[in-house]
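Pasting as-is:
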Amino acid sequence: MENAYHLVSTCGDIATVLCAIAFLAWLLRVRDNARALSGRRLRYGLPWVYLGWVVPIANFWVPRGIVAEVHRAGDPEARLPRSVNLWWGLWLIGALSGVGLMYADSTDAVIARAYSDVTPLLVADAAVVGAALACALMVRALTETQQRRIEALRPVSG
């Protein structure tokens, strides 16, 4: 089981890094679009796209704030998509519960817990998987909002 744990853990870490890179690339792009669409300077400057995830305490609200600001710039009259709050809530639950479960103990203790008390591990993983699914819906919703706004602003050729 230990060898399988390390293999699955490594695959999960690689997938997480790839998803994080793809998400940050998307976030930078929609943030730039939001700045161009709104014609104003955004509240969260460029460094916060990265720093917002790693600066303690600020990482509890800055990433969601960036996403909300992007949405408002794309459609100031529309409500924030539910997927944004669902994504952020599940992300916080998964991250906060998973950090305590996975990093407070040694690898051997985590593996032993999988035999004796797997429920907290599964709950943390379920929250992160749910956050990933909600994130996909959020990415789609915000991208569509910006695309509609760009189409509305595009001059009609004729």
